[in-house]
């Protein structure tokens, strides 16, 4: 079971790249929680908190394919560095808007959040695109699984750190730290790309030709992107549900603790799945994810009131074990389907699909929380994963193309 991990660790620079790729996305895991507390306290509305959070994520989603295409054509290291600085500074400015303006000025915050999102550093698409250039076989599958598992661990650390800062200091400081982490993570990842020789563009025989429509004509690519949309939307709806319940009971730190428990469960599931031989079964993994999310509905208010944090934590621990395996299988499948010279662009579109899922989930979960309560919001997440199951069953398997030579 450990053999794939040994093969992975034996490749120079890969472990360091995995670590910095995870640290480079740490800021994203705590930002929704910090921003939710900040905006809900500023405006008194979860719905408006969702709208402003969605504006940030729409900006991130719009920039995703553009950043991916630029990385494919011109290289990634400099791009990651410059955008990381711009995003981090912008996030720090956003943190203080509620102290400068009254809550009725929330549209200004929404516009600013969208603008900051445009500068999000493309750590995620770049990191996912380089694994097939450096690895193959079981080591490649393990890389995607470790990548997803480390991401889940970041979802344990990020929300817990954000919640601790909210409880100990204030939401503004939590968002400031998020911006600082964005700059630090982008700088470290950019440096490792250069050290590993992965900072340049992908050389192809037709690189100078315009890249018109074609990526979405590849069978399974569109379905893979939609699958990520629904999976991410469901995950964030659950996260928002936990945040709202913790805020309602007057214990904001519980949001971070329960989020960490959820991520730990995912990490354990990912580590087990990463050591398995053979191609991952995507549909089965998404079905298990559905069961984990559905188990939350009966343990939350108003279905179960007052809810027990111990019971919620237990459900999250076991239900979370299906998250990383499902995400890893979905990411690997897209990497197999996309042409090698457009893989970063494909993962840029994946980031866009994921952030679109965030953008839909934030106001949707806010509305369901305002008008139905946590269990109703969790039921909305169940609907999202159910649609994901239907899509997963339609995505074909594919063999990866030969990798082009790097310039």
TrEMBL record:
Keywords: Membrane, Transmembrane, Transmembrane helix. Its main location: membrane. Residues 217-407 form the Major facilitator superfamily (MFS) profile domain. PROSITE patterns: MFS (PS50850). The keyword Methyltransferase does not apply. InterPro entries: MFS, MFS_dom, MFS_trans_sf. It comes from the Bacteria. It is found in: Cell membrane. The chain crosses the membrane at residues 33-63, 75-97, 103-123, 144-169, 175-193, 214-238, 253-274, 286-304, 310-334, 346-369, 375-393. It is a multi-pass membrane protein. PANTHER family: MAJOR FACILITATOR SUPERFAMILY (MFS) PROFILE DOMAIN-CONTAINING PROTEIN, PTHR23542. This is Sugar phosphate permease. It comes from Kibdelosporangium persicum.
